[in-house]
Amino acid sequence: MNKKAVLGLMLALVMPFAGYFIVKYYSENTVHMPGRYFTPDSVVVSEKKGKTVTDTIWHKVKNIEFTNQLGKKFHWMT
């Protein structure tokens, strides 16, 4: 294997790791996002066949009507 191939292989292996550590270093003092983005309306815990089952209930929206770029209307069915 010649020197250019070894250099290219080393570069291909080192660059992703270097990029990862650079981004990690500069992002340590940034704003941290919260862990949960969606809040359900309620959570129902029930027992079925001897097992505890958790069911999440989300808010439902009425039927929404949109108009596309061609002027045709369509409905968002929920």
Instruction: Please give the order of strands in the largest beta sheet.
Output: 1-2
What's the Cα radius of gyration? 26 Å
Overall shape: it is extended
Please tally the β strands and state the result.
4
Number of helices: 1
Main sheet: strands, sense, barrel:
2 strands, antiparallel
Terminal Cα span:
62 Å
Low-pLDDT stretches are none
As for the number of domains, it is: 1
Mean pLDDT: 87
**Helix/sheet category:** alpha+beta
Quote the beta fraction.
Answer: 25-35%
Order of helices and strands: HEEEE
User: Level of helix content?
Assistant: 25-40%
Question: Can you describe what's shown?
Answer:
- The protein is of the alpha+beta class and 78 residues long.
- It has one domain (3-76).
- Helix content is 31%, strand content 28%.
- The protein contains one helix and four strands, in the order αββββ.
- It has one helix at residues 3-26; strands at 42-48, 51-57, 64-67, 73-76.
- Strands 1-2 form a two-stranded antiparallel ribbon. It has a two-stranded antiparallel sheet with strand order 3-4.
- β3 and β4 (73-76) form a beta hairpin.
- The termini are far apart.
- The mean pLDDT is 87.
